[in-house]
Write a structure and sequence with these properties.
alpha+beta; two-stranded antiparallel sheet
Length: 351
């Protein structure tokens, strides 16, 4: 496992703490009061030390307040704004008293005299701790929103994967059932042909089992499965099945859900070849349009009305798997044109 990056190891809370209270320190130093008779370098250094004292106490007090908030949250008792404002008042008073102790001990301007400075000091520290609570609450809300979004996305991806796996699980039994029916029919007619069909079926089964672990596979692999499937059906239908496959250059690596193309070819054989006494041509064309979209077409002679008695489970399954695996940019259309039924798959350029 790779070591976490430096940013991942850093605590963003402490980075913000140091940056925020460091800014307070800088502003205090820049707003040094002008006190007659106190401008020597030693006086300035003592004043800077008092400012550091106040900023450090701000860091410690705000961190202690954060721990209280975390314990309340862990106990399931959320703190309302009234309690937060009360906490801000207490934090401001304690921070003022702490910095006063610094003035008394370090004495940058000599002995502390009078209390005219007290209201302004209290107001300043109250404002600082109120701002700290506002930023802290906003940061927690943002983090919770990001976590919720990430969890929602994770659940959506998990649901999508589960649905895709369920749809893929429907394909293989459907295909194997039809193929075994073909083998059964040949066993009594031509044992050698049945043996060849079993060999081809074994190749298809191997691919289906291996591809089932992936959402998509290269088009070249799907074409290999289709060729094996057509070889199986060629044994069964002989001259009634005439297959033509034309794949354009550069399309071998186009991604497609496993067994999706085979499902369309299987439908074409069932409703085109098997349903017609003279059989049918099965034409498979793959090309890339000028806009970069890959188009795969499976055509067979016949009419869409011939599908009226079909549940069209294969087509519905293929549409859903395309949408789940490749997004809304992938779609499947079925139309009838010039005595041909054409199933056209359009895949987005990104595939």
């Amino acid at each position: 496992m790779p070591a976490p990056s430096l940013l991942a190891r850093l605590s963003w809370y402490w980075m913000c703490q140091c940056a925020g209270w460091g800014l307070v320190l800088v502003l205090q130093v820049l707003n040094r009061p002008s006190v007659p008779g106190y401008a020597a370098p030693d006086d300035v250094r003592r004043y800077v030390l008092v400012c550091c004292w106040g900023a450090a106490s701000g860091v410690l007090l705000s961190d202690a307040w954060r721990r209280i908030l975390k314990r309340r949250q862990a106990a399931g008792a959320r703190m309302g704004w009234g309690a937060v404002l009360a906490g801000v008042l207490v934090l401001g008073i304690v921070n003022t008293m702490t910095q006063l102790a610094g003035y008394i001990v370090i004495r940058p301007f000599g002995p502390v005299r009078g209390v005219s400075w007290l209201p302004a000091a209290l107001a300043s520290w109250w404002c600082l701790h109120l701002m700290w609570n506002v930023f802290h609450t906003a940061a927690l809300s943002l983090r919770r929103a990001n976590r919720l979004e990430a969890e929602t996305l994770r659940l959506q991806v998990g649901a999508k994967d589960a649905q895709l796996r369920a749809l893929q699980a429907q394909v293989n039994p459907h295909f194997f059932f039809n193929s075994m029916n073909s083998v059964r029919a040949l066993v009594y007619e031509d044992r050698d042909a049945a043996a060849r069909m079993i060999d081809e079926l074994t190749s298809v089964m191997r691919h289906a089992l291996q591809a089932g672990a992936h959402d998509t596979v290269p088009l070249a692999d799907e074409i290999d499965v289709v060729r094996a499937y057509l070889a199986i059906e060629q044994i069964r239908f002989e001259q009634r099945l005439r297959a033509y496959i034309d794949v354009g250059p550069g399309l071998d690596t186009v991604r497609i859900p496993p067994m999706a193309l085979q499902t369309l070819v299987e439908n074409a054989v069932k409703h085109g070849v098997e349903a017609r006494p003279d059989g049918s041509d099965i034409r498979i064309h793959a090309r890339r349009q000028d806009d970069g979209v890959a188009v795969i077409e499976v055509a067979n002679a016949g009419t869409i009305q011939a599908l009226s008695g079909s549940t069209r489970t294969g087509l519905v399954n293929a549409r859903q798997r395309l949408a789940l695996a490749l997004g809304a940019g992938a779609n499947l259309d079925l139309c009838e044109q010039d005595g041909w039924v054409r199933a056209t798959v359009r895949l987005p350029e990104a595939t």
